[in-house]
Design a protein that fits this description.
It contains eleven helices and 16 strands. By secondary structure, it is of the alpha/beta class. Bound molecules: (5S)-5-amino-3-OXO-hexanoic acid and zinc ion (ZN).
């Protein structure tokens, strides 16, 4: 087991709306500031989405991505990993457009799922009408990643020299991956992110993570992939982080996936979540990888 752990910080995401937490970074400046502080706290990979600056609505705006990626690159040597998952209502073409910036890494979602954000809409929060609609509308939202979509994005990444981090939400998607390998669309070694806790896919429970890990090891061989765990929600985020640290895996935390640092305490920043992950890692005698070490572990050019 490596003593270093690659900590990914998912800064803002496309699953939440501003009224849920004032800590969610919205503007370019806020996302960059949060990214720099998360990297200083121990994150070596920064997972990036962008939002409309006036409202906070998740968007796939290239001008915003350009400003965020440029400013982050100027202020930190963390691995920058923009999303191709995007947010509700984006086409796969819009989601893939960020690859024009030829990022060294980007997410590639391995299959389609229901993606329920609506339970939040029922909360007694002063949502803006668009926010309530964004959350409520997910009752009928399919996060679409057909074999054609995954192939399209994988080919775009091949052309842009971008390494995919493959987001896997349930065990069936590992068989999608196996099929796409047979098709020559993707080839090991992979970087897998086990995403657990999305309503519509696998829950953030220990036996589910273990089952996904064991299945991946059986299908592809233990050395054919690096892996990380991203638990969505609280306590899922830190339960999956703890188990991953114990098993030698890597960890993803951040306000994209979870808004609380303790049961009854909202997270004030991404750095606060990264600091908790670093404390957890220390308990397992593991330390945050530097960006250079993360590039080596993930198979990225130095
Ligand atoms: C649950 C997360 N939204 C998974 C994710 O971050 C997907 C992506 O951006 O491509
Ligand atoms: Zn994301």
């Amino acid at each position: 087991m490596d003593d270093q752990v690659v900590i990914t910080c998912a800064l803002t995401g496309g699953m939440t709306v501003p009224t849920q937490s004032e800590a969610i970074p919205i503007t370019v400046e806020q996302i960059v500031e949060e990214g720099v502080r998360a990297a200083e706290a121990g994150a070596s990979v920064l997972h990036v989405h962008v939002r409309e600056e006036a409202t906070g609505r998740p968007v796939a705006d290239l001008e915003l991505f350009d400003r965020v990626l440029t400013e982050l690159k100027r202020n930190t040597d963390a691995v920058l990993q923009p999303t191709t998952g995007g947010g509700r209502g984006m086409t796969v073409e819009e989601r893939g457009s960020v690859l024009t910036f030829r990022p060294e890494m980007a997410t590639l979602n391995a299959g389609s799922i229901n993606f329920g954000l609506f339970p939040v809409a029922g909360r007694d929060l002063p949502f803006e009408p668009w926010e309530r609609d964004y959350l409520e509308g997910s009752r009928d939202y399919i996060f679409k990643n057909t074999f054609a979509d995954v192939t399209y994005l994988a080919q775009l990444m091949e052309e842009s020299g971008t390494r995919p981090e493959i987001e896997v939400y349930d065990v069936g998607q590992l068989y999608n991956l196996q099929y796409l390998v047979k098709e020559g669309v993707l080839r090991p070694p992979f970087n897998l992110q086990f995403v657990l806790g999305v309503l519509g896919a696998n829950a953030a429970e220990p036996d589910q993570l273990l089952h996904m890990l064991r299945t991946a090891q059986r299908l592809f061989g233990e050395d054919a992939f690096t892996w990380s765990a991203a638990g969505v929600g609280y306590p899922g985020e830190f339960r999956m982080a703890g188990l991953s640290l114990m098993l030698g895996g890597n960890v993803r935390v951040g306000l994209e996936d979870n808004l609380r640092v303790e049961r009854r305490k909202a997270a004030g920043s991404n750095a606060e979540l990264v600091e908790k992950a670093v404390r957890l890692a220390d308990l397992y005698d593991r330390r945050p990888a530097t960006p250079g070490e993360a590039r080596r572990v993930l198979g990225l050019k130095g």
